[in-house]
Design goal:
It is built from 15 helices and 21 strands. The protein is an alpha/beta fold. The protein has 3 domains: about 200 residues, FAD/NAD(P)-binding domain (3-Layer(bba) Sandwich); about 110 residues, FAD/NAD(P)-binding domain (3-Layer(bba) Sandwich); about 120 residues, FAD/NAD-linked reductase, C-terminal dimerisation domain (Enolase-like, domain 1).
Length: about 450
């Protein structure tokens, strides 16, 4: 039976980067990944394919509305076979690089599924047994099926199916209003699908502020997406012509039919097959592994990172967690936990929604005083000439010195603009520090100076 210093279960963002760091520290490492195609969720069925498709749909949207700019573009449409082929080519290149790195020989790779036989032993699906001093679980997440009557019996699409489309669906019922639901609902609408989105929470994108979600929802409705928020889904049923959803909205019964149904009601940690009970690892009821600030489970030599442990299902967080776990397992001194006060989040709808640091509700709940200032995109020169009029920039700052606490941007290229705050937040900079920097006119980034100046004026008085 082979033994390793660190065994990473899952070769995605968390596992691969943990293995990379551990081998750099001279550890004997193995990665176990039983997926038919190596590469991880982000490359194969997440970030890269979705953003490839979303950007293609954005180009199409510009072409269809070129008249706003005094341009004539006729016949703009989606050739989904060509769009699909381009997506496969792009993610194929990324996946090939990852597979090359996985098979480069710096660590051993086992293409099988793993489950714990005991706290130090893994049983693989190919019959192999391995011993490990430490383990890093990075098995990601999977689509969940909540207890909605009829949902398990209906032939629902998952995000995997939507990302693999090579045709334009006539109509789609999107169940859910989270990030995946919203990004792909807008993509479907823009390629020519009639989309109805049914969300249970009072607002779409419920993890974000009501102000931000309302801007995105208005943009959706303006584009022709039918949005129902604050619903109670009563049933989903398969019929000859497609799928029917029955739900309550504003106290009234509503029925909507579509050719296809897309279940985007959430994801859950992919930990059910790991045999965690045999290793004594504790989880929450949904299967999420409970970890401390060093990524350790209740069994100290078993670590977890990424979607399977949370708290944020974000690639750069998974990478940071995996790297931290590898260093901690190798007893590297002077380590610091992942700093969630710098949490960065981007939603790739149009308008985009991006946040960094503290949100208003966080500060309100903690009783932390702050100053807040906003500025709208529809009053900013560069965004106006781009016809990018949805949204705003919001800045939160400490009321004595003006140290930046957080920022929220809804609007054109918000995912790029939010990075203007990354370094200032990490350096605990103030609004005055940011205003000392030059801001070129006319640029989108220049809009950030207006709320900064407003807070600076409040500090002066």
């Amino acid at each position: 039976m082979k033994s390793y210093d660190l065994i990473c279960i899952g070769g995605g963002s968390a596992g691969f980067n943990a293995a990379r760091v551990a081998t750099g520290l001279g550890r004997k490492v193995a990665i176990i990944d039983g997926a038919k195609q190596l590469g991880g969720l982000c490359i194969l069925r997440g970030c890269m394919p979705s953003k490839t498709l979303i950007y293609a749909a954005e180009i199409l949207q510009h072409a269809r509305h070129a008249d706003k700019f005094g341009l004539k573009v006729t016949g703009a449409r989606a050739d989904m076979k060509a769009v699909h082929a381009r997506k496969l080519r792009i993610i194929g290149e990324f996946a090939a690089d990852r597979v090359k790195a996985l098979k480069a020989g710096k660590f051993d790779l086992y293409q099988a599924y793993a489950s714990f036989a005991d706290a130090h032993t893994l049983q693989l699906s190919d019959g192999t047994r391995l011993r490990g001093k430490s383990f890093l679980i990075g098995t990601g997440s999977k689509v969940s099926i909540p207890p909605v009557p009829g949902l398990r019996e209906v032939k629902c699409w998952t995000s995997d199916d939507v990302l693999d489309l090579d045709f334009i669906p006539k109509s789609v019922l999107v169940l859910g209003g989270g990030i995946v639901a919203c990004e792909l609902a807008q993509f479907l609408n823009r390629i020519g699908t009639k989309v109805t989105l049914v969300q249970r929470s009072p607002n779409i994108l419920r993890e974000h502020s009501e102000d931000a979600s309302c801007v995105v929802q208005k943009a959706f409705v303006d584009e022709g997406i039918e949005v129902f928020a604050g619903t109670q889904i009563q049933s989903v049923a398969q019929g000859k012509g497609g799928v029917t959803a029955t739900f309550l909205h504003d106290g009234k019964k509503v029925v909507r039919r579509a050719a296809h149904c897309f279940n985007a009601l959430g994801r859950e940690p992919n930990t059910a097959r790991l045999g965690l009970a045999a290793a004594g690892v504790k989880t929450r009821p949904n299967g999420q592994i409970i970890i401390n600030r060093w990524q350790q489970s209740n069994v100290p030599h078993i670590y977890a990172a990424g979607d399977c442990s949370g708290p944020a299902e974000i690639v750069h967080i998974a990478i940071a967690q995996g790297e931290l776990a590898a260093r901690h397992a190798a007893k590297v001194k002077g380590l610091k936990p992942v700093d969630f006060s710098l949490l960065l989040s981007v939603v790739f709808t149009d308008p985009q929604l991006a946040t960094i640091g503290a949100l208003e509700r966080d500060l309100d709940e903690q009783g932390v005083p702050y100053l807040c200032a906003t500025y709208p995109f529809n009053d900013h020169g560069k965004s106006m000439l781009m016809e990018a009029n949805y949204g705003y920039v919001k800045v939160l700052a400490e009321p004595k010195r003006g140290r930046i606490l957080g920022a929220e941007i809804v609007g054109k290229d918000a995912g790029e603009l939010i990075h203007c705050f990354s370094t200032p937040l990490a350096m605990r900079a103030t609004v005055h520090d940011m205003l000392r920097a030059p801001w070129y006119h006319p640029t989108l980034a220049e809009i950030i100076t207006y709320p900064l100046e407003e807070i600076a004026d409040k500090l002066a008085h």
